[in-house]
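Homework help board

Subject: predicted structure for assignment chain

Our instructor gave us this sequence and asked us to write out the predicted structure in token form, then describe one feature. I got the tokens but I'm not sure how to describe them. Can anyone check?
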Amino acid sequence: MKKPLLYRSVNTRTHGVRHGSCGAYRYERHTKAEKNTLSTRGSMHSHQRHGFDYTPLFRFLLSKVGQPWHAVFSEANARLDQPKPVFWIVALHESDKQDYVRTDDNSYYSGLYVDDAGLLQKVNPQLTPERMKPVCDCCTHTFNGVVFP
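My token output:
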């Protein structure tokens, strides 16, 4: 049986969905300000890929902590559209390590790294949802998929 993909497509055509610049170009389009702004000089096609949710990937990686990195990456890469999202939370170099990574507006995941033995490990294994502090009181924040107050 074929294993499910580690990402899913999300609706980006719903009213109110904003990506990237949030429509900043629309406000400067007909102004008499300097005509050589970034939005008029830039490409019409962005390099961002909207409409994909990589939550299944992040959960998969967290479930593989302590296992050989080569095997984990091989399986993840075979089930992804591109390998780039793996490295949003997995650090290959000491300087890239972070205790936690913000993947969305209010979604946080444990930072991961590959140790000297080639095993996938958490950067800070003691970090739990109870130790996290929300940025604001109005939103629901999650850490590794668990809501924290």
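Reply (TA_rk): Your tokens look well-formed. For the description, you could write something like this. The first strand starts at residue 8 and ends at 9. That's the kind of observation they're looking for.
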